[in-house]
Structure prediction request, 142 residues.
Amino acid sequence: MSSTTPNEMIGIVVCTHSALADGFKQAIEMLMGPQENFAAIGLYEGEDIMDLSRKIIELSKSMPTHHSVIFTDLFGASPTNAAALALVDVDAAVIAGVNLPMLAEILTLRNQDPDFENLLNEIVAKGRDNIRIITKKMITEG
Prediction:
């Protein structure tokens, strides 16, 4: 697959309750270094969902990208609802239930000119594949 130009790169916005989005951004940049077209925004107590939606739109439009993916923490919660409202004004998709493997995967694949719909499905699959249960019994019994 070929590399893309900056306007073909996919922009990433992480939108969560409180400072969780900033934590994801810091963790990713610790693992992968600074990232272009990657932003974090939190919803704090007392803030308005419409204001959050406008901020998401501003962040998405400030990135010189063709598409954006907006990751949120909880399906049906205010950050996800604000992101869904933003879809009226930006060419983006919302993925609820963000985790670190999903972000690492999209940051790795977003420059490889993938089909956008296939990329979204790969990202969700990566998130699911990295959810595991580890118990004491598993560790002690091998």
User: Anything to note?
Assistant: The first helix runs from residue 20 to 32. The domain at 6-141 is CATH 3.40.50.510 (Rossmann fold). The chain is about 45% helix and 20% strand.
